[in-house]
Known about the structure:
9 strands; 18% strand
Amino acid sequence: MQYHYRGIECLRSPIDMAIQARAIWDLKPRTIIEIGSHAGGSALWMADLLRSYGFDAPVYSIDIKPPENVADDRITFIEGDVRNLAPAFEAHGLPEAPRPWFVLEDSAHTYECCLSARNFLSGPMISGDLLVMAAGLLVELGVGENYGGGPNRAVTEFMERSPGVFEIEQTLCDMYGRNATYAPNGYLRKT
């Protein structure tokens, strides 16, 4: 929780940064969508990572209150609510954004917010796009009840109710050991 990237709060696990760097390299996304900007460090890290890989892809970062002190022409910060993503997506033409997508859902981490995001994203995402449901580790940290079960509960219930929409990308979840990630069973490929 103390991690900063280029002097900006990033709040990322080094393990997940490594997993996501590998996922982005393998996927070669043409669009990155982040839900939950916080201070903007994560979006800046992804934009720099894309540049280092030689990928020309925009980063869109959505938050109820986008950061004001990060300006970078590779990143578009968008005001939007995870509980109702459609207006933000429509206003910025995201449904037509180039594929494949790398989508990082790292917003409020509550069950309600995570399930809303999953329900919405199952529509515009297409086969091969990758969704990361961050912060599922809240349950293992013993604070899951503060978030209504958080991302883990949302992932489990969505997979049970809508089988075949997403599949767990085990190679990413288990890269450093079985679910050794802050997103256990949270690396999901659209089928």
